[in-house]
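[Q] Does anyone have a clean structure-token version of this?
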Amino acid sequence: MKKEVQTVTSLLKYKNKILLLKRSQRVGFYAGKWAGVSGFLEEGEIPEERAKIEIFEETGLKGKILKKGKVIKVFDKELNANVVIHLFLFEVKKQKVKLNWEHDDYVWIKPEEINKYDTVPILNRIFKILLKN
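[A] Here you go.
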């Protein structure tokens, strides 16, 4: 049986733009790909709280939850695991990001620009889930 891991992925919204982060070469997987803010959920943790921690660690920002998306499950070849992803959309009041070691770059994009970026798997799907009205 394949292992299962729980994760959180958050999109950050500033005005009409969404933050993409470019994963550094120092991360374990998907280096060089554009992503939202993600992290592994430890046993017993509340997904919303983990999302807030990851957002602050990876961007230096704090935000408020605008939307909690449905939980999605995917098989990730790179992790060789079934991944349960808790989705969140946060609104932030600042666009100045302080990156940690996990990312090399960031960009604020209009949602329709997502296809111009080489992203982690299913980020398009996450955009559709969290940004549809």
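[Q] Thanks! Anything notable?
[A] Residues 3-131 form a domain with the Nucleoside Triphosphate Pyrophosphohydrolase fold (CATH 3.90.79.10).
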